[in-house]
Amino acid sequence: QVQLVESGGGLAQPGGSLTLSCAASGFPFSNYAMNWVRQPKGKGLEWVSGISRDGTDTNYADSVKGRFSISRDNAKNTLYLQMNRLRPEDTALYYCVKATTGWGMGPADDYDFWGPGTQATVSS
């Protein structure tokens, strides 16, 4: 069965960094685009970033462009999100999300599996 397990969340100071990871299993990881979606407590879902199946194409929400970097290692079936210059408004539960196609890396694309999420908190 498909499993997505996020890790790497925690507490960071404003201006600091965190690196999130997502270990994938149960499907051919290199065949599918992957995305990160976040949800601040008490608020709605916000798509953050997506990457194509081979890692050559990436996409970012305006709110994180220039600060976050998405990448993947298909040999390790792992997705990453490097978050730099963190702000308090980046505080959220971050989900690793599998697209239904190899190029679905945007907010309007179809997703079929979600991880349980990892909490990132930015506070001084």
Can you tell me about this structure?
This protein is an all-beta fold. It contains no helices and eleven strands. It has strands spanning 3-7, 10-12, 18-25, 34-39, 46-51, 58-60, 68-73, 78-83, 92-99, 111-114, 118-122. Strands 2, 4, 5, 6, 9, 10 and 11 form a seven-stranded mixed β-sheet that branches. A four-stranded antiparallel β-sheet has the order 1-3-8-7, with no helix packed on it. The chain is globular. The N and C termini lie far apart (40 Å).
Structural key phrases:
124 residues, mainly beta, 7-stranded mixed β-sheet, 4-stranded antiparallel β-sheet, 11 strands
How many strands in all?
11
Structural class: mainly beta
Number of helices, counting only DSSP H or I runs of 4 residues or more:
0
* Distance separating the two termini: 40 Å
Measured as a percent range, the helix fraction is: under 10%
Series of H and E elements: EEEEEEEEEEE
Question: Cα-atom Rg, whole angstroms?
Answer: 13 Å
